[in-house]
Design a protein that fits this description.
This protein is α+β, with helices and mostly antiparallel strands. The chain has helices at residues 2-10, 27-32, 54-64, 122-125, 221-227, 237-244; strands spanning 13-16, 18-19, 35-42, 45-53, 70-74, 77-88, 95-102, 109-118, 129-133, 137-142, 151-154, 164-166, 176-178, 185-191.
C-alpha cells in the first residue's frame, strides 16, 4: 500500500485539453462525441473554457482525485491544476462538466482532503457502540505537491462509549497543516439504542349513531310512537277504545 502511494505521487499526471468555443445546448453533441467540457480558473489566470477527452480524464481522475496535481497540456503550455467541482448527471452519473483550479507549485494552498477511518474500536467491537463519522473531509494547507491523498483516522484509541476523536488528536505533519478548529469532532462512538416498539392498542370503536331524540324514559321517540298513539288531549287512544267496549249499565 505504501509503495503504491509513493508511486502515485511520483507519477506525473498529464491531460490534453483544447480551447472550447461551444456552449449551451450544443454541449450535448460534444458529450456524445466522447468529450467533456471544462473550465480553468485561478487567481493568476483568466477563466478559460476547454474540452477534454472523457476516457483520458477518467483515467487521470482515478489516480489524482481532487488532491493530486494534474498537468494540463493546452496549446503547447503546461498548466498545473487540481480537479474541482465535477458535475454529474443525476440519473446516469455521467460527467457533464469539470472545473480545473490553476495552482502555483511554489505557493501553499488550502484545500479539502477526505477522511479515511482505519483501525478497530474496542467500544464498537466489544461494547456494542456505534461509530459516527461527523466530518467527511478536513481543510488543510500545503504545497500542491505535498497535499495528502487522504487523512487517516485511527479509531483504535476509542475504547469507551462516548469517546470522540477530534482534530486535536491528529498527529502533527511536517508537510501540511490542518486549518480546522482543534475541538472539531471527526468521529465518535455512541451507545446503540434500539428502536422503541409501540404497544398495540385496541382499534377505536365507532360511536353509536342515534337518529332519533330519546324521550324522557331513554327510548327513542320514534319507537315510542309505534307503541302508542296519543290523542290531542294527551291521553292514549288505545285506553279510550278499551273503555268504550264496556257494556252500558
Amino acid at each position: 500500500m505504501k509503495n503504491k502511494a509513493q508511486s502515485d505521487t511520483q507519477t506525473k499526471l498529464s491531460l490534453n485539453v483544447t480551447t472550447r468555443t461551444v456552449f449551451g445546448k450544443k454541449l450535448n453533441k460534444l458529450r456524445k462525441e466522447g468529450k467533456v467540457p471544462g473550465n480553468i480558473f485561478g487567481q493568476d489566470i483568466k477563466s478559460q473554457s476547454v474540452t477534454a477527452p472523457l476516457k483520458e480524464f477518467s483515467k487521470v481522475y482515478k489516480v489524482a482525485q481532487e488532491t493530486g496535481v494534474v498537468y494540463l497540456d493546452l496549446e503547447k503550455k503546461e498548466l498545473p491544476v487540481l480537479i474541482k467541482n465535477i458535475q454529474r448527471h443525476p440519473v446516469t452519473d455521467m460527467i457533464l462538466h469539470i472545473d480545473f483550479r490553476k495552482i502555483d507549485l511554489k505557493q501553499k494552498i488550502q484545500t479539502e482532503v477526505p477522511i479515511k477511518v482505519v483501525g478497530q474500536s474496542e467500544a464498537v467491537s466489544t461494547k456494542g457502540g456505534v461509530l459516527l463519522t461527523q466530518s467527511e473531509a478536513l481543510m488543510i494547507e500545503a504545497l500542491p505537491t505535498e497535499i495528502p491523498h487522504q487523512i487517516e483516522i485511527d479509531i483504535s484509541s476509542l475504547k469507551e462509549l462516548g469517546q470522540e476523536f477530534k482534530v486535536s488528536n491528529l498527529p502533527k505533519s511536517d508537510k501540511y497543516e490542518v486549518k480546522e478548529n482543534p475541538d472539531k469532532v471527526i468521529v465518535s462512538v455512541v451507545e446503540h439504542k434500539e428502536e422503541e416498539v409501540l404497544p398495540q392498542t385496541a382499534p377505536a370503536v365507532a360511536p353509536e349513531v342515534i337518529t332519533a331524540k330519546p324521550d324522557e324514559e331513554g327510548a327513542p321517540a320514534e319507537q315510542s310512537d309505534k307503541s302508542s298513539t296519543k290523542t290531542p288531549e294527551g291521553k292514549p287512544a288505545a285506553a279510550e277504545d278499551k273503555k268504550s267496549e264496556k257494556p252500558g249499565k
